[in-house]
Amino acid sequence: MLMLTLITLLIAAATLYRFILWFNSYTRTHVRYEFFTMNHSLAMVFSYALIFFGYNWIQNGNDGLNGAIVMGIGIFILLWVMINNFIKAPRLYAIAGSLMQLIFYIPIAIGAVIIVFVVLAWASETKPVYVINND
Asked: How many domains does the chain have?
């Protein structure tokens, strides 16, 4: 069952990737604007991370004001990308592209955070600590 789940996830990721490539080529041809670029990807992943961690900060009851500020910065970045879409593309394309960005960047953001944590864990090269003098 685990292998079936992994294969399904890989097929879904490949299908999503191919659709993003097709949509970018379509909008590049018709509108001369790409919705899925590296700058948009970084901005959306960063904004989703800020919104998520700000919300968790508020829910843990530590300091609600700091969590709200972090969420506000994330929402500001998200809105900046959407406004940029509406400035550079016609309204119908901007609505469709912005909705696709909002939906498709959620699994991309989750995958990016997991990859960053795995790379950081691998790069830290954590070694076991042994106690020699135990008095």
From this structure: 1
Q: What is the pLDDT of residues 67-104, one digit of tens each?
A: 999 999 999 999 999 999 999 999 999 999 999 999 99
- What count of Cα atoms within 13 Å lies in the side-chain half-sphere of residue 75? 8
d(CA 49, CA 7): 27
> In this structure, how many other beta carbons lie within 10 angstroms of the beta carbon of residue 61?
8
Cβ neighbours of residue 113 closer than 8 Å, sequence gap 6 or more = 45, 49
Q: Quickly list H helices, 1-135.
A: 2-30, 38-59, 64-88, 91-124
Question: Does a structural domain hold residue 129?
Answer: no
Q: Is residue 50 part of a domain?
A: yes
Among 39, 132, 134, 21, smallest CA distance to 81 is for: 39
**Residue 54: which domain range?**
2-114
**pTM for the full model?**
0.78
In a domain, 122, yes or no: no
- How far does the chain reach from its first CA to its final CA, in angstroms? 50
